User: What shape does this take?
Amino acid sequence: MPIDYSDFDWQGKNYVKIIGRTLSGKRVCVIDDYEASFWAILQPKVKEKKIQEIIEKISKIKVKNPSRTSSVLKTELCNKKFLGKSVRAIKISVTNHKDMHGIADQLGMKEIYKRREYDISLISKYVMQGGIEPLCWYRINGENIDNSDDFGGIGKALDVDFCLKIEGKEKSKEQPEFKPKILAYDIEVSDIELGKGEILMISLYGKNFKKVLTWKKCNKKQDFVECFKDEEEMIEAFVKSVKEYQPDILTGYFSDGFDLPYLRANAHQNKVKLALGIDGSQPVFSRGRLVSGKISGIVHLDLYRFISSVYFQYLQSETLGLNDIASELLGEKKDDFDFLKLKNMKEQDWKDFFAYNLQDSVITYKLAEKLWPDILEFTKIMKQPLFNVSRNSMSSHVEDYILQNLSGFDEIAEKRPLHEEIGKRRERPKYVGAFVFQPKPGLYENLCFFDFTSMYASVIVSYNLSLSTFESIKEKKPVFSKQKGFFPKMLEEIIEKRKKYKQEYNKNKNPVTKARSNAYKLLANAAYGYQGFFGARYYCVEAAAATASYAKENILTAIDKIKKKGYEIIYSDTDSIAFLLGKNTKKTVLEMLKEINLKLPGIMELELEDFYKRGLFVSKRSIEKGKTREDSGAKKKYALIDEKDKMKIRGFETVRRDWCKLSRELQNKVLQNILKKGNEKSALELIKETIKEIKARQIDKNQLMIRTQLKKPINEYVSKGPHVIAAQKMEDAGLAVSQGMLIEYYLAENKSSKSKLVRDKVKLPDESGEYDIDYYLNNQILPAVGNILEVFDIDVEKEFIKDHRQKGLGDF
DNA sequence: GCGGCGCTTATACC
DNA sequence: ACCGGTATAAGCGCCGC
Assistant: This one.
């Protein structure tokens, strides 16, 4: 079972080193050959004789480096495909992967059309060329090199049960479930800024393994706590614990960005080696936009990275914090620790702190177990090492999938865009996207929702939209070839697999079948964005624009057909259509659905999403000149209730995290009451009650906190909004403020200033102050419920609030 | 000092 | 820099009066 991948050079050649497990749980290292090669694609119609001359020239290329000289090992003339077209290409095998670029640079002959595949990582190429795929059982045989000096004595140096040089490999027919050995860790520090503080404690949690290592206050009552003389000894004990447990995966939460770099820095300061690797090496941090910490032989898994890049968009959590994520995925609320206590810790506080530290590791461990099926499926589908898969973005996943499936089409891979090309792509103007129907504000009864299944993906497949099938622009419209391209074909396979695994999941519901079906769904959904993404190898705006355009065309046609059948369209956004059932039965509606489907192109499919008892649509708050409330219905903002009384709320303040809890909860209750009962009576009572409480200052401050994300450094803001001021206040108070943080604040009365600016009322949660009644009434409650009640011709401001304002400040 | 409008910003929908 | 476009809305910044 191959788990961790790396590559190394030995005597000028490349090898792949894979760390994995045997069926019986032994830790093994296998070393496989790797032959570096890339392609020189020839211009069409180059004469045989000329080709032979070129091959001869190529064979003699040498690249000299300080450490080695690379040369061409062999060449092979092949018939291949490149972007769907048949080409003649020379496969150039070289001695060292790292010198492919240098050798490719020397292929300036005019007969060579393009040089390709010298920019793919070694491990990716290794797998593409038929190497061992990650997380699949293999039967292998080879030479035991435990005690040999081969490869510089690697067999002796690694902490593994045995080490093999591969001679034969075969993917096993049986693929029994594999459960990796996971160890979770978490640190607590005296100052969160790296280099400024000490590590107070480190917790570890695994199967039958729990520890908190510390050099601070120790007590005998918590048997999981181990005490050490100082930070240095504690870090050494951490390294020893990891070695003792022998994990396949060492996991943390935000550990790429915090725990591992912190450990590394403080180990260095203490002159201790953080020898976590199975070869005794220290973690290596790769540069990039985000730092990634790699440990040799053990997969360092930062769950935060996986969740933020692929998983988060399908969760309800409003933040990426361990707290929020764990409570949603595990249903566990974790106890909080008051970090302000750190300045003056009592005996009991330390006990609480140790327990808190351990708890974070426990939760991280459980989260890793929970997400394992998803990470496993992604790894198997993309055929990339676990380390990469757990950190990659969706666009990388799409690209990895393409690269690993090109051989089935005999395709040579397109190159990654260079800096200059990326710059150009990013400057392109936007193309027209989806259609959104402007609803008429109102409370509707008996609605039906249709939607297109994986609409954009099915458009790409049905209309054959991709880089390799793009032919030309005629009369301002892109033309795509009739012959199926590999990209749409791959996508069709993905959609088919998604269908198959979805059925499988419905038959047999478990985390594994769910993860499999979900992974293909995510991949299908990301394919459209990929073609319009400036960093993509197979970038094609024409395809992306055409996808959006054909999608629009199809939904407008469907809307038209539904209308012509006599239904009233209520709403539509991108791939969904809502209409009133009216006097028709569900059966008639389903017949119409069938009829529409008969005429849809290719694999496109319209399906019934659901029937809803009621639906509420409101008007926009700012009504444009010359328009009435009636024709100013807000898009992307509605609330539905189905036949089981389950609500579906979109776009309303209830679902926006930058509104205070009070408004969100009140609005939610108002919507619930209206949708359940079909009238506004009880909702009015709720509003009245809340307004009374606000005026009487009976509202808990926690209900009034507003949270807004700080998206850039404080000084880069042109417009200093309330949350920027709050962030500034935090910084002034000595609190750590960083980009991406959720800034929390409330609005307080400011008697010393007459300023009308909201930002002059900003106070941090622990700052004392009286909440600003006018602000919360006029800027929170009124907007949240105003346009809902407007549907029933009620003016909330006139009914409840104005009265207060007219009395003026004199009341207070 | 105030109202209006444009711009910046955050967040949602699909 | 790490998937696309469409949309709402708050609150500042600035202008003119």
Summary: Chain A has 22 helices and 29 strands.
